[in-house]
Amino acid sequence: MHAPVAAAALAEAERATRAADRARRTGAIVTHAILILGVALFALPIWIVLMGSTHDAATVSRGEVPLLPGSEGLANYLTAWGEGSAKTTRAPVSAMMLNSFVMALLITFGKIAISLTSAYAVVFFRFPGRMIAFWSIFITLMLPVEVRIFPTFKVVSDLGLVNTYAGLIVPLIASATATLLFRQFFLTIPDELVEAAKMDGAGPMRFFKDVVLPLSTTNMAALFVIMFVYGWNQYLWPLLITTTGDVETIVIGIVRMLGSEADTDWHIVMATTVMALIPPVAVVILMQRWFVKGLVESEK
Amino acid sequence: MATLTVEGVRKDFAGTHVLHGIDLAVGEGEMIVIVGASGCGKTTLLRIVAGLETASAGRILIDGADVTRLEPKDRDIAMVFQNYALYPHMSVFDNMAYGLKIRGLPKAEIAQRVQQAADLLGLGALLARRPRQLSGGQRQRVAMGRAIVREPKLFLFDEPLSNLDAKLRVQMRAEIKRLQRRLGVTSLYVTHDQVEAMTLGDRLVVMHQGRAEQVATPMEVWSRPANTFVAGFIGAPAMNFLAATLAPGGEAAVLKAGPTIPFIDGRRPLPDGTALTIGIRPEHLVAASDGALALKVDLVEPLGAEALVHGLLPSGEEMTVRMSGSSPLPGAILPLSVPPLNVHVFEAESGRRMDGLHEFRKVQPAASVAKQAADR
Fold this sequence. Notes:
The structure holds 2 protein chains of 2 kinds. Chain A has 15 helices and no strands. Chain A has helices at 2-52, 57-61, 73-82, 93-124, 130-139, 149-158, 165-169, 176-187, 191-200, 204-215, 217-232, 236-241, 250-257, 266-286, 288-296. In chain A, helix 4 (93-124) packs across helix 8 (176-187), helix 4 (93-124) packs across helix 11 and helix 13 packs antiparallel against helix 14. Chain B folds into 2 domains: 4-228, Rossmann fold (3-Layer(aba) Sandwich), CATH 3.40.50.300; 229-366, CATH 2.40.50.140. Chain B has helices spanning 42-50, 92-102, 107-121, 136-149, 166-183, 194-200, 218-223, 228-233, 366-375; strands spanning 4-13, 16-26, 31-35, 57-62, 65-66, 77-80, 154-158, 186-191, 203-208, 211-216, 240-246, 252-255, 260-262, 275-280, 286-287, 293-302, 306-312, 318-324, 333-337, 344-347. The radius of gyration of chain B is 24 Å and the shape is elongated. Residues 361-376 of chain B have low confidence and may be disordered. The A-B interface holds A 190, 192-193, 195-202, 206, 210-211, 214-215, 299-300 and B 50, 52, 71-73, 77-79, 81-83, 85-89, 98-99, 102-103, 146, 150.
């Protein structure tokens, strides 16, 4: 009696296994299909820009969307780098890249320096108005840049700083986010460490230099990445404050290159776009290890 | 080496009194252990001495000089913290050298002092490591090394062993004691662990709710506790307390549990019938077939060489006995006798110790009495 029952059960099990395998395969296909669609959605525009930058002016103007590399790549990049778009701005990309680079770097260092010191003051010292100072920094987090952009513009133009690096950079340096991040990190530094330093005879500046700064390096690296990309991508403020090509940034430059449909050197615009992508991508890739470390762990 | 004097130190935090006027005189090279339950103010006292907190009233004198208003760095003291507080980004060498660097000592001397301390503590091979690459015991040693290289007038220890496992704690305890003897630096050591207190201290300060209940040598604290708090705090398992009244004439105590215990160290000069608390340590009770106390055994905890027997007396009071040899079974009635020599008499109302008029029972070793006299 036992054998046939066992055989039926075996067949049943076999069938169930096969069904499960099939279901798994279908699942895998569906998830991959969605994944590929997602990747294509993100990657395709970049691919088109990359390919477009290697064709001559006529190809893109005709309305073709090139998906394969053309032959004009080197020429396009050299033209963009040295001369810019002949039809519109005529400012060379190299100059705009330099402006962007200087702006992004100075904003980044400025932000880190200011927020590091203000967080240090808020966390490690007891003084009247400490909480007021902290909250007024914190509240600016809630105000979008656009809200305070016209008062800021008024102040900067009254100071005669329009079309200068100072006018471009200084208003962007204050950072509630970075201050908050450093504050949170400083709060994890144990009180005993502060007290041990006091017993060792370290004053506040000494403690800052010898203990707080070295412990904050990973956080600084993480902020460097975020802030550099933030600084590089600034659009609204540079748009207001730069009216000539002298301090024009690359992001603004790309927009100004776009004239009317017929007047646009699409091949140059696309080459410029690719070049504008490179520095932030490089920073992220180079500092990725530090970036992740700084956001995930606090060294204790 | 230096002396430390604490004069009437009080501390209030927003209306709560944490310390109610502490007086303490620490002699040169002496090791004082401040012991008490958590929240008794012992750490606050230590931090006030360190200068990490300010006293609400009173003075701190080091070598006779008033340091009450000085910053920690100007007091010439070193402190070992409970969680070691090593600088995580510095090597062992730099951790130890940091205080010297700030004081601007020449490099050669720093290197020499650190090397010396490292040799003393067996850290020689670890100087290049970071704190996180060290075990708990090694970190503890680095923290001590950091204190030693400074060659301070005063060492402060804030529960330095409580983060270590039991075995290491015993080992480090002996090491600290040896080191303190060898360096002869006046030390203040805070702990909640009475074994640490008993073994390390030349004298103990037993603290309770912001007051120093007793300041005496470990043996005196153990054999002549000043009040019921100290009696119950020092000694494990804790002393048994039994309610009693003073017999007419003041020559004996009548226990609520039955028997009368004669005072062999003399009469207590109190009115007849005064409520008393009689203290007997678990190790002093003797099982005897003619014992007058009948303990109904309810739990037996074997410890190997001996056993702790917990039970109830006919009066409803709990009692613990430490017995070597065979122990009774739960439920049995264990007759116990009380050796009159080992009875502590306290006034029930105030909890204060009442000594007999003869006081021949002072068991304090002669040597420590002499030392104490020399310290003062």
